[in-house]
Amino acid sequence: MAHWTETAFRERPDVFRRHLEDKLAEATAETEDLLALLADNGVEPTTALDVACGIGRHAVELADRGVSVRGIDISESYLGRARERADERGVIERATFERADMRDLGDRTEEYDLVSNLWTSFGYYDDATNRAVLRGMYDRTADDGALVIELVNREGVLADFRPAGVPEDGDALVVESADYDPETARMETTRRVFAETDGGYDYEGEMVYDVRLYAPAELAASCREAGFADVSLYAGLDGAPLERESTRLVVVAEP
Predict the structure, then answer these.
(1) Reported pTM
(2) CA angle in degrees (0–180, nearest 5) for 63-64-69
(3) Looking at the structure, do residues 25 and 138 belong to the same domain, yes or no?
(4) For residue range 56-104, what is the model confidence (pLDDT) as tens digits?
């Protein structure tokens, strides 16, 4: 049976692609915040590896600021769009995209000033595999570089947990239902998308994603176990202080 990531991102990539496109407008500010946060931690990257880069939202922005970026993802559909965007922005020589699996990071040899994994793209697999992915990201981080992970904060999400919702998503109607398992700390979410038409809405498809959620202290400990010496926690890429109610979690880990 195929892993849910294969179904969601390779077999049915268009269901989530609409949401990725809608988030493009936020990428410029997020990248500026990311670089400022890194500078505050003494890291000014000239090379970057964007793990699970999607349509290249942040990779293209980094390349536009002079960073040499390699974006990897398992979805050829998303990678094709990333290449289009890099070409449109005139940064195709600094932004390279390839189909690759984050579970294979340990097999690579290159190192980067910045390894990024953004927008809850960590926790896809079982705990042992997630730890191996984290070790692979450590192996790819240069000695004077940093890993940045941005994802949901389990503590903040569960404090205001809602098993169903209708989030805004451009010109589509999106219906989400979620189920959290406290024994595994995994959240399974079903996302159904209905495209707006003149007569109402047409069902466009659904995707199911099953993600391991992390509490801040837990993920920080996992980063140290993977080999990182210094780990800083924030509530966002803008460096906001982490609080119990924070729904986002940003980890900056340095070797």
Answers:
(1) 0.96
(2) 0
(3) yes
(4) 999 999 999 999 999 999 999 999 999 999 999 999 999 999 999 999 9
